[in-house]
Write a structure and sequence with these properties.
The chain has helices at about 5-35, 45-55. It is mainly alpha-helical. Helices cover about 55% and strands about 0% of the residues. The protein is elongated and about 70 Å long.
Length: about 80
């Protein structure tokens, strides 16, 4: 809305940068890296893992007496 061309160009460039970040980096690269890393992408830091163990939060729907591991959400 400014009459200064530099400000207008800066605004358009900022919109373009945000769109590239959202579309390319977060949607395409993020999901591709998560798919390539598989289970290695999902790890809990030590304090969070202890919190999960303390309150019985599990990563699977399988009861503890079976050896088969089925992820809660599949993609």
């Amino acid at each position: 809305m400014s009459d200064v061309l530099t400000i207008k160009l800066f605004g358009v460039g900022m919109v373009f940068a945000v769109l590239v970040d959202v579309l390319v980096v977060r949607i395409l690269l993020g999901t591709a890296v998560m798919r390539l890393l598989g289970r290695a992408a999902w790890w809990a830091p030590g304090p969070l893992a202890r919190f999960y163990d303390r309150f019985g939060i599990k990563e699977t729907d399988v009861p503890e007496d079976t050896d088969e591991r089925i992820p809660v959400a599949t993609g």
